[in-house]
Amino acid sequence: MTEPILEITKLNKSFGPVHVLHDVDLNVYPGEVTALVGDNGAGKSTLVKCIAGINHIDSGEVKFEGKPVEFTDPRVATSLGIEFVYQDLALSDNLDITQNMFLGREIRKFGMLADGEMEKKARETLKGLSVRTVSSVRQLVSSLSGGQRQTVAIARAVLWNSKVVFLDEPTAALGVAQTRQVLDLVRRLADQGLGVVLISHNMNDVMEVADRVAALYLGRVAAEVLTKDTSTTQIVELITAGRSGDVGLAPATANANI
Known about the structure:
Elements: E1 6-15, E2 18-28, E3 33-38, H1 44-52, E4 59-64, E5 67-69, H2 74-80, E6 82-85, H3 97-101, E7 108-109, E8 112-113, H4 115-128, H5 146-158, E9 164-168, H6 176-191, E10 195-199, H7 203-209, E11 212-217, E12 220-226, H8 232-241
Parallel strand pairs: 3-10, 3-11, 6-9, 9-10
Antiparallel strand pairs: 1-2, 1-4, 4-5, 7-8, 11-12
Helix pairs in contact: 5-6
C-alpha cells in the first residue's frame, strides 16, 4: 500500500455546544477512489468544509504528502492541489465551457485575455480525460445536459494539476447514460494517479467505482473498509447503525469501531 496523499487524524469540529465531528480519521490514497458515505447529518459536509478551509478545525492533524498543513482559508487547499466539485457545480450558464473552466483564473498576456491558449488547454484537458460527449469547448454551458455539465465541472477541477479531487454527489439527478459517463470519468481520474473522494448516497455507484469506503455515523468514522471486502448491505448497516457484523477492515483502520 502506498502512503496516503491526504491523511486526517482525530479531527474534531464543534459549532457552539454541538460536537459535529468526533476524532475523525480519513486517508486518501493516490490512484484510488475513496467513497465518503453517511446519512444526512453524519458530518460529511462539515468534514469537507474543514478540508476546504471554510470551517475552522478545532483539533486534530491533517497531513498532505506527509507534511502537516493547516487549512486556514480556501487558498491553502487550492495551493496544495486539492479541488472541490460541489453538488451545485457553480457553473455560469451564460458562459461557454472554456470560460467556465478558467473562471476566476483567466490566463492573461500583456493585459489581455489569452483566449486561444485557454481554449487549447480546455480541449487538452477534456481529451486527456477521454471526454467525447462535448462537441466544442465554445459551447454555452446552458446548452449542456446534466452529465455534460458535471463533466465540465470535474474537468475544471483537474485543469490545475490537482492531486486530490472531492466530488459531492456527482451523479445526483442524472439519467442512466449520463451516470455511466460520470462514473467512467471518476474512475479515469483515479487511474491517472489522483486521489478521489466520492461523496455519495448511491451505493451502486460506490460499489462500482470506489476502492475503499469511509462510513460516517453521527460524526464518527464507523469504519474505513476496502470495497472488495464488503457488501452493500454491510455498508448500509455502518451508515444506519454505526456497526456491522461482518466487515473486512482496510489495513489502515484495524481499530475501527465495528
